[in-house]
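Figure S7 source data.
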Amino acid sequence: MGGLSSLSLDTLCSRLNHYNAFMKLPGIISYLAALLLLISLLEPTLLLQARFTSNAPDIIKSGYEKFKDRPFVVRRFDADITILPHKYVAELCSAPASKLSAVKVQVANLVHRWTYSSFLEHSDLHFRVVERNLVPELPKYICVAKQEMEHAWLTCVPKPKDWTEVDIQHVVRTIVAQMSSRILIGLPTCRSPRWLDLALSFPADVNTTAFTLRASPPWLHPIVARLIPARYRMKRKIDLAKKMMKPLIDKWSGEKGKGKHEKDCTLLDWMMNNGDEKETRLGEMATRQCLLTLASIHTTSMATAHALFDLCSHPEWFSILEGEIDNTLKDLGPLDTEEGAREWLSRLEKMDSFLVESQRLHPPILLSPQREATVPLTLKDGTHIPKGCRIAWAVSSHLNEPHVTPNPEIFDPMRSYRKRYSSSDQWNKHLAGQTSADNLVFGYGRLACPGRAFAVAEVKVLLAKFLTEFHFKLPKGKNRLECKSADEIVFPDPNAKIMMKTKLG
Ligand code: HEM
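C-alpha cells for the predicted protoporphyrin IX containing FE complex:
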C-alpha cells in the first residue's frame, strides 16, 4: 500500500504551509506557483478519494499500522476523516452531543438535502423509540418478532431434502424484514408484499443515492441528484409508505392508542404517543420508518449471514452450538413467553461468544463511531480538534491488535466465553452487543447503536431455528465468504451462496 493512501495531519499542515509560503512570492510568480501547487494537490487528492471508495479496508489498515498512536487522515470524496488512536475513545465519546455530533455525520453521510432526511437534524425520535421502548420491553418484542419469524419461515425458507445451493442472504434479509416490520408497524401491514418489498429495497436506494452524491462536489448536487434513478425510487417508496401508514396513523388518532392490547403495540404507536406535533406528521413518520429499515434490517441480516458462513468455514462448531440449542430447548421449551425470554437468550452463551468472534472478523462499518466537532476541542493531553473536523476510530484494525485479541489470525469463537468464565466479576462482560473502548462494532458511548441488544437477540433466535432445522456447508471450491466494500462499509459478496438441506426429512 503506497504512502499516499493516508495523510497524517502533519503532512496536510505542511502542504498548507507551503501554500502560504508561495503566496508571499511577488506578482505573477506567486500565482503560477499557487496554480502548480493547486494542481499537484488536486490530482493526488482525487486519486486518494477514488481509491478510498473501493479500497477503504486496505487504506485504513495501512494508515493504522503506520501511524498507530497518532491521528491520520483518510480522504473520502465528500469528507476528510481523521482517525484517532483508541486512547481517545472514552474521553471524546463522553463529550456532550452539542460539542461532538453524531447527527451531523449521519445527515452528511446521507447527503440529507437530497435524500428526504433533513428532519433528522432536529429530531431523534427514531433513536428514542429504540432506546426507550424497544430495549426496555425487549422480551415482549423479541417474542413478537419470533412469532413473525415462524410465519415468514413458511414462505421464505426453502426446505430442500438434498444439498441445494441457496441465496441465504436473501432468505435471511426477507425474514428479518418481516420480523422488524412486525415490531415497527405491526400486523397486517408487516406481511404485505408491497411493504416488504419497500423495507428490503429502500436501504439499497438510499445508499446508492447518497454514495453517488458523495462522490460529486456539493455544487453539482442539484444536477446530479436529478439524474439518479435510485433517488426517484426512494421518493416513490416514501410515497407508498405514506399511503400504507395513513390508515394506521388515522386509526391511532381516532383511538389515541386506547383500547389496544399492550401486546399489539408497535414502535409506531410509541412514536405517535411520544413524538411532538411535527414528528408525528405523516410525511416525517413515513420517512422515519423507511430510515429505520435502513438502520435495522441489513445490519442484522448481515450479522446472521456472517455467522452461518463462519460456521461453514469452521464446521466443527456446528455440533457445539446445536448441542447448546438442544439443551436450552430441553430445559426451557421453545422461546414463546416474555417471562422466559431473557433466560432463553442468555442460555445461548456459546452462540453469544461465537457472534462476538464473527463480528470481530466482519464489522459492517470500519470507521465507528464517527463524530463531527461542532466547536474546537482540546483533549487532556493537549491534542487539538478543530471545529468541523470529522473524527472516527478504526474498529477492525484495533480489534485485531494482538494486545486486544491474542493471535488475531486464529478463529477462536470461545474467546469471550472463556473471558466471562475466567472470574466472577467478568461474568456480565464480553457479551455480544456490549460496547467497550476496544470493541466499537456497535459504536460507543451514549450514542452507540440503541438497537444492539435487540439485534443480538434476533440473530440468536434466527440461528437457533436455522441450526435446528438445517445442515449447512459451503459450495464446492469455496472455503470462506468473500466481502466487498464501498467506502468504509463492508458487506458479504451479494452473490455468495450456501448449500443447505433439511434435517427434518
Ligand atoms: C448487527 C446489527 C447492528 C449493527 C452492527 C449496528 C451498528 C450500529 C452502529 C455502528 C451505529 C452508530 C453508533 C455510534 O455512532 O456510536 C448504529 C446506530 C444506530 N442503530 Fe444500529 N446496528 C445494528 C442493528 C440495529 C437495530 C436492529 C436497530 C433498531 C431496531 C438499530 C438502530 C440504530 C439506530 C436508531 C442508530 C442511530 C443512528 C441511525 O439512525 O442510524 N441498529 N448502529
